[in-house]
Specification:
Length: 49
């Protein structure tokens, strides 16, 4: 297996801007999804118990 990493640590075939953008989108989606889930669970606790 060849080591084709550049000095910055990114492989030659990787696009750092696209990778970082996708990762930031994943983090944002996870935060929003967690917040929605917490609101649903709190609403269930209030109205169903």
């Amino acid at each position: 297996m060849t080591d084709n990493k550049s000095a910055s640590g990114w492989g030659a075939e990787m696009q750092p801007d696209a990778h970082i953008g996708t990762y930031n989108g994943f983090l944002t989606g996870t935060k929003i999804g967690s917040a929605i889930l917490i609101v649903i669970l709190v609403g269930m606790a209030i109205f169903l118990l």
